[in-house]
Give the backbone structure.
Amino acid sequence: MADSVRWLRIDFDKCIKAGECYYNHPELFRRTDSGYPALRIRRAATPAQFREAQEAMEVCPSRAISYEDDSTD
Ligand code: SF4
């Protein structure tokens, strides 16, 4: 799986603007003026991006970050 491309998704119905993603993983996320995150990149394709995405998913307190093809809702 690590050599494939996976699309990132933020569920804004779940996001509580805690900021863990953009403070800890600025390579993937940025803070918008509203306090919500935005994706800097739409897909994870490198080992570093997969690692960053995995860590962001784990630290998000509301589990709002996932891969688009995950059916974890
Ligand atoms: S860590 Fe989760 S809850 Fe916090 S801003 Fe990012 S997506 Fe939203």
